[in-house]
Amino acid sequence: MALRQWIDGDETAAEMLTRVLKERTSLLVPPLHRVPLHVGNVVELVGPSGSAKTQILIQAAVNCILPKEWNGIRYGGLECSVVFIDLDCRLDISRLSQVLKLRILEGNGNGDLGNFDALYTTCLRRFFYIRCYDSFEFLATLKTMHHKLQKERDDLGIRLHLLMIDSIGAYHWVDRVSSSLPLWGNNRKGFSLANMLEAAVEEIKKLLLVHPSIVIASKATIFGDRSSDIVRREKSLSETELRHGKTDGGQVLYREYMPSAWQSFVTHRVFVRGSDEYLTVSSCEHQSIYFSEWLLPSLGVLDKFIVKNAGVFMVP
Asked: What is the CATH number assigned to the segment(s) 41-222+257-315?
């Protein structure tokens, strides 16, 4: 019925522009603010453990589920739904709640709390959390997600704007071991990490056709960061093998281990890492400083940011 209405429907130029601009709303969130992210972009957030990747995902999620304006108060959100697929099974929901509450209080000027509960509840209705424990559950989730999202869009008028995956390489070692196990039947396609990721990419592409959105996936550097001996030894590999893990100066950041189906699917890539630097907030409080660097597109700029209770903030 919806398809027939779209085919038979008509709209003015003003209505068309309003619809297109709404669909192309960009996502600007630190430290991903240097390149506006639009529907159809697939962002890979790569870095070692403890580099604040999940904190950045939480920041982006809160920016999406907050309203543009509520009861005359501007919050600057996108007022869209977010799907968070947790493959690491380590998301702290209380941390998401904390950032959301502080952002609401900040918008209120820490004053009027009369509508706090209603706004808080409305925002959380736009956040969908899914936990998967293996690649098969991940694939099953992607295959069945369309019906859930369609129901929410029809019932509540909520459209998907951001699909998050934390972390896309979570089952790397498990799937590598499983690929050596025999399968019943001669006609079955062999199980492997490459096959599973290829199938996942195809399902995400199908989902984006029906529910246009931004995809942000975190990925751990399982071979260590730039200070690791293992990473330094990878300098002997060919330029082709390391092309997704080098800076312009040729220094190795990490070794790429994802299959080509995923690598070719990614449109943007940001490398994040921790540091030994601290920002002195007060005489008794010091904030760890993190670094972020755009690899795709390569911007040649190293940004600094910190993680506070209210989210991620850039450091001059």
From this structure: 3.40.50.300
Q: Report the SS3 class of residue 39.
A: coil
Which two tokens mark 42? 């697939």
Residue by residue, DSSP assigns 113-135 as -TTHHHHHHHHHHTEEEEE-SSH
Residue 295, H or E segment = strand 285-296
- How distant, in Å, are the alpha carbons of 38, 73, 191, 221, 238 from that of 235? 35, 53, 31, 16, 8
Q: What's the 3-state SS for 64-128?
A: HHCCCEECCEECCCCCCEEEEEECCCCCCHHHHHHHHHHHHHHHCCCCCCCCHHHHHHHHHHCEE
Instruction: Compute the distance between CA of residue 107 and CA of residue 123 in angstroms, rounded to an integer.
Output: 14
What is the distance of C-alpha 243 from the center of its chain? 22
Is the previous residue joined to 97 through a cis bond, with omega within 30 degrees of 0?
Answer: no
Sign of the alpha-carbon torsion through 63, 68, 71, 75: positive
For residues 227 and 274, the answer to whether their CB atoms sit within 8 Å is no
Q: Residue 71, SS3? A: coil
Length of the chain measured in residues: 316
36 prior amide bond cis, ω within 30? no
CA separation for the pair 44, 41 (Å, rounded) = 10
Q: What digits encode the pLDDT tens for the residues 282-298?
A: 767 788 999 999 999 98
Residue 300, classified by CB atoms within 10 Å of its CB into exposed (0-12), middle (13-18) or buried (19+), is exposed
Choose among 146, 196, 140: nearest CA to 171: 196
134-184 per-position pLDDT tens digit: 999 999 999 999 888 887 777 767 788 999 999 898 888 787 776 655 554
What residue type is 178 in one-letter code?
Answer: S
Q: What stretches of 52-92 show up as alpha helix (H) in DSSP? A: 53-65
Residue with tokens 């702290």: 92
